[in-house]
Write a structure and sequence with these properties.
Elements: E1 7-10, H1 15-27, E2 32-33, H2 45-55, E3 59-62, H3 70-75, H4 77-97, E4 102-106, H5 135-155, E5 158-164, E6 166-168, H6 181-195, E7 199-203, E8 209-214, H7 215-227, E9 234-237, E10 242-244, H8 245-256, E11 261-265, E12 274-275, H9 280-284, H10 293-310
Parallel strand pairs: 1-2, 1-3, 3-4, 4-5, 5-9, 6-8, 7-11, 8-12
Antiparallel strand pairs: 8-10
The structure holds guanosine-5'-diphosphate-beta-L-fucopyranose.
């Protein structure tokens, strides 16, 4: 990677974008452009075109998205589809018009069919029906990765994508209604511990299997992908380790020191039964995850406590 290039990280205030900015700085990249939502609304095509034309980065990393856990997604498929579709279409098109040489688009492992073979290879894309709880988000991300593939094929632009598994870590959103499962569990167990509650209510049956990756491992994967001269159009990024939601709950409870009993609310959705990425392709190109789940959870609990104490924490959208 040429560290003298100008990088634009879309979504730099989010968990993924902020991790990418930190990783670029660690690499010695000095010219990193960012724009807050107020400065640039990526769902606005004219504004996005104008921003790219004025700033002309060499490389763009598209980590901006409306994201959320199973609750947020299943309640708002229309919003997740339209906002993420606009962000993908506007950034890819505006980047190309402005001569951006390289673009890395970030998606999610929910692009794959609900009942894809496990671990899920990249080739499973579009081979079956999607999980209904996040169909809107998945469709937008499929459109985004296909846009990159087609701009590369049709116009020779070096635009490519990574599809991370379930992420967690520094700067996560601790919204107990709309958030992802891991930060939500941290918040629920911490609240129960400090309130002395007897029970913590979790969703579903606890039987679904999920794979978790620390966001700093994903950020290194992004830099790794950007280092490749001829990257595959699409690569999965996962830790390779699967845990059940029930196991995850026990791990988070232990990490917080909470003694409350877990109650499972089976009226809430389980979502897809299993979602383990096959990350052989990226691993064969030299990337590997470094943060194991126990250590990552311990670190995230400590960061949650610090963020809560300082008031610098996201508890909703
Ligand atoms: O991270 P999460 O919300 O989303 O995890 P997905 C959902 C799983 O955790 C389900 C269980 O099996 C839930 O039943 N769960 C248990 C809980 N307790 C809780 C809780 O208190 N809160 C939450 N949120 N879940 C998301 C997609 O799917 O994965 C997104 O909706 C994205 O689009 C993301 O792709 C990576 O893993 O099911």
């Amino acid at each position: 990677m040429d560290t003298t290039q100008t990088f634009y990280v879309a979504g730099h205030r989010g968990m993924v974008g902020s991790a990418v900015v930190r990783a670029l700085r660690r690499r010695g990249c000095g010219r990193i452009l960012t724009a807050t939502h107020r400065e640039l609304d990526l769902t606005d095509q004219a504004a996005t075109r104008a921003w790219f034309a004025a700033n002309r980065p060499d490389v763009a990393v598209i980590a901006a998205a409306r994201v959320g856990g199973i609750g947020a997604n299943s309640a708002a498929n229309a919003t997740f589809l339209i906002e993420n579709l606009l962000i993908a279409a506007n950034t890819v098109e505006a980047a190309f018009r402005a001569g951006v040489r390289r673009l890395l688009f970030l998606g999610s492992s929910c692009i794959y069919p609900r009942l894809a073979p496990q671990p899920i290879p990249e080739g499973a894309l579009l081979s079956g029906p999607l999980e209904k709880t996040n169909e809107g988000y998945a469709l937008a991300k499929i459109a985004g990765l296909k846009l990159c593939e087609f701009y590369r094929r049709d116009f020779g632009a070096l635009y490519h994508s990574l599809m991370p598994t379930n992420l967690y870590g520094t700067g996560d959103n601790y919204d107990v209604v709309g958030g992802h499962v891991l930060p939500t569990m941290i918040r629920k167990f911490e609240l129960a511990r400090t309130n002395g509650d007897a029970f913590v209510d979790l969703w579903g049956t606890g039987t679904p299997l999920r794979e978790f990756l620390h966001v700093d491992d994903l950020a290194e994967a992004c830099l790794h992908a950007l280092d490749l001269d001829d990257p595959p159009d699409l690569m999965n990024v996962g830790s390779g380790r699967e845990v059940s939601i029930r196991q995850l709950a026990e791990m988070v409870r232990a990490a917080t020191g909470c003694r409350a009993e877990i109650r499972w609310d089976a009226s809430k959705p389980d979502g897809t039964p299993r979602k383990l990425c096959d990350s052989t392709l990226l691993r064969s190109l030299g990337w590997e995850p470094r943060i194991d789940l126990e250590a990552g959870i311990a670190r995230t609990v400590a960061e949650y406590r610090e963020a809560l104490a300082s008031g610098d924490i996201r508890l909703g959208h």
